[in-house]
Amino acid sequence: MAGEVHDSEAVFYPVFVDLRGRLCLVVGAGKIAARKARSLLEAGARVKVVSPEAVEAVERLAARGLVQWQRRAFEPGDIEGCLLVIGATGNPEVNRRVFEAAERAGILANIVDVPELCNFIVPSVMKRGDFQVAVSTGGASPVLAREARRRLERSFGPQYGKVVGLLAKLRASLKQRLPAEEKRRRFWEAMIDLDYFDNINPERVEQEIMERAERCLSQLED
Predict the structure, then answer these.
(1) Is residue 71 part of a domain?
(2) For labelling alongside 31, which of 53, 161, 173, 205 has CA 20 to 30 A away?
(3) pLDDT tens-digit series, residues 97-146
(4) Which domain holds residue 150?
């Protein structure tokens, strides 16, 4: 894999990665790099930024101790200990060096807007709390992915974040109420109804979800 350039026919494996406490590198410190750094921080990553200069947004993050900013040019050793690296320098030569260093080390690398220099891509994500839907075109058309995400945002309202949290609580306690695995499966098949969730009163999400859960449980408990 090292040294190879990935072609546009690559088939990417969709996956959500737990970045909590993991070191991630952003090379570059412009507006795009700042946005990438913030998204990594939101996922719980430890973020290192390497760039001789930085926009104000990155400077603020560094001043608050949220990112480690190395004020110099990229060096291959910067990737040591990182789970992934994002290159956003706008300099083709530097970007290629970042990608090749990551490939040699077996580290995930994404060079922004250069699909052939990526061994992973970042999808467009619709988020409602822990409810997330990722859309990707394999790097072929980021605008199409963005527009698809916007359609999803219109389809799934803000109540879905609360719904997911409540379903997680139900799952944690369900074994006590329904010890039989087959009954738990039937419970979830009855409980999950997107049309119902779509029409929940945002002010009564918890009450309506718990009432629905009790109705479903009453049909299955001995």
Answers:
(1) yes
(2) 161
(3) 999 999 999 999 999 999 899 999 999 999 999 999 999 988 888 899 99
(4) 123-156
